[in-house]
Amino acid sequence: MTHDHSPHDHKARCEAALEQLFDFLDGELDDSLEAELKVHVERCKPCFDRADFERRFLEVIATARAEERCPKALKDRVIATLRAQGLQA
After folding, report:
1. What is the DSSP letter of 85?
2. What are the E-state strand segments in 1-89?
3. If pLDDT is split at 50, 70 and 90, which confidence band does 55 have?
4. pLDDT on residue 5
5. Domain range for 22
6. pLDDT at site 1
7. In this structure, is residue 37 part of a structural domain?
8. How many domains is the chain built from?
């Protein structure tokens, strides 16, 4: 991403930022690219809003996954049914 300020270059930087957004949010970018993307997101309201939305979305999903567990009784019934059908569970 360059620091040219023409509308075309800004749009290209936004597109590049959004293509790498999930890697950025997951901390999977190398340090220099992460720093560059962070600066862009902090300075670009549309990209900031999108990154903030996606970050919050991922947090909600992570929380829901941690909280939702299959009830033991249901798990036991499924295993019993599989075994009754001759399948190993």
Report:
1. T
2. none
3. very high
4. 58
5. 7-84
6. 47
7. yes
8. 1
Q: Is-contact 54 22, C-beta < 8 A?
A: yes
Evaluate whether residue 2 is within a structural domain: no
Give the dihedral of Cα atoms 46, 55, 25, 14; nearest 10 deg: -10
* In contact, 46 and 14? CB cutoff 8 Å: yes
Listed residue (57, 47, 2) closest to 26, CA to CA: 57
Q: Residue 63 has which token pair?
A: 């929380």
| Position 67 pLDDT exceeds 50 | yes
CB 50 within 8 A of CB 21: yes
In a domain, 1, yes or no: no
Q: Check if the beta carbon of residue 25 is closer than 8 Å to that of residue 54.
A: yes
In a domain, 74, yes or no: yes
- Is the separation of the CB atoms in 17 and 47 below 8 Å? yes
Residue type, 67: E
This prediction's pTM: 0.62
Mean local confidence (pLDDT), 66-85: 85
